[in-house]
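FW: tagging you since you asked about this chain on Friday. Here's the raw sequence from the shared folder, copied in full. Didn't touch anything.
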Amino acid sequence: MDATEIKALKADKSLLVEALKEAGAEFSGDRIACPFHEDAHPSGGIFPATDGTWKFRCFSSCDFCGDVIDVVQQHRGCDFKQALELLSGDGRGPVVHVSAKGSDGQQTTKPPKTYANLDDAIKAALGPLQREHPDGTHRLYTYADGYRRLRYDWSNGKTFREISKNGSEWMLRKPKGKTPLYRIGEVSLTGVVYITEGEKAADAGRKIGLQCTTSGGTSSAASADWAPLAGRDVCILPDNDSPGEKYAQAVAEKLSKLDPPAKARLVRFRGERPGYDIADFIDDHDSLETDDLRKRIMSLAGEGAESTGRVEVETHYTDMGNASRLAQRFGDRIRWTKGLGWLIFDGRRWALDDTGAVVRLATQTILGLCQRRSESGVDLPV
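HL: got it, structure written out here
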């Protein structure tokens, strides 16, 4: 391929779009969720450079910027020559052929590049990451026999790569269909299941004896298979930031649509920095014995108590938030009726509250909240 052909490749906007889609990018209008890291809020875009080249730029933590060749290199873990071969149709990759067209006149794709074993796939995924961030470290998370997630951390960032089985070989992409929950096969058929935001947090919870799983990163809830949690008691443990809040909302929605719905509750861990999670909470309480720490978290999650079947999402410290807490805890026992005022259920019938019982329940709710926040460092809907 000569310089003119290479220039034509770089000037083909549709080819860049297809390469990004093949790498796993999700498009939302003009915004693009970067395929090279967990991008809960689409942070990328494509633009024409002054030389006529179309480029993709991520404005989030990974700061990737490159043309279609750079995208293929980053995604496939290959060098410049191999990327050209893939783009021209001479390689084994899935990227759109420049000249090949199907019978309908549309550009065609080739099967994804595969690797003989998992180790070779890991090396291919790590290649460009280690060249760009040589100080990085990696960790492999096993979801199921044919699905892995590779995490790569460096001094000021992190990213993930999907690895899945394709027959007897491996490829750098998610498996088809819904992805399994992390280590779901190790979760027993009884007891509360804790859902964290990410594998690191799940592993931290597992180390102290909690049944933890996750669908992955902040934007992973929609593509996960939640069916194994149908009818189960579940406690969602999101990270303490805006993406964590959205993850909790997405998970709660999925759990509510199962048949039968999961019975869910929510616990937020609060800390000095955004993203504070169960792993940070465990580190900050390392003076406690493992059994005591596990029991504290189980208590905060209300394990052993009857689940409401609802997820309390609003926990602002306002009158509205406190009203939500009161309804969450005692909503089956109290009612406000226009013209009559407060009614309270004594187990047999509804009666006017002429003893101030509702006020005492409200006071009990607030005092319990303050005590738990003081003792545990956790925001908890009580």
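FW: Confidence is low (pLDDT under 50) at residues 90-103, 105-110, 304-316, 375-382.
HL: agreed, and Residues 357-376 form the longest helix (20 residues).
FW: great, closing this out.
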